[in-house]
Dihydrofolate reductase
Amino acid sequence: MLVAIWAQDKKGLIGKNNRLPWHLPNDLRFFKETTLNHTLVMGRKTFEGMGGRPLPNRQTIVLTHDQNYPATNVIIMHSSAEVLAYAEKNDGMTFIAGGSAIYQEFLPYCQKIYRTVIDADFEGDAYFPSIDWKQWQLAESTVGQQDDKNLYPYHFETYQRITS
């Protein structure tokens, strides 16, 4: 099953220079706990923005047009068809983890969404693509805990695709 996961500010901003424009440890923990022992799919720029190495205990797929992309301990794929075929055969969840173009490409195939909304405005250069929310039903919304390390108000949302 394909699943999208991302965090955004209240304007839909998701990145700045291929990195997160905020520091929210509880969201990073949520991302880790949700994706652990599953597969992550991301574009090359997102992968490099995360340090160019796979996250522990997750299979990472890097989608790139570069036929000779040099990366170790990850699966390199060059087309959305390759990713979709992998996800269809995969027993676990395959998480789409960015950036904007990757979300745009795979959102039509996703059955579930995990979205963190940070109730603040940040500066950045990457926004989540437009989404037809009529195709999705909010299944859960949980307010995140603010503290001295998680300074911004935020909440976690889970959506299921509405099937006709």
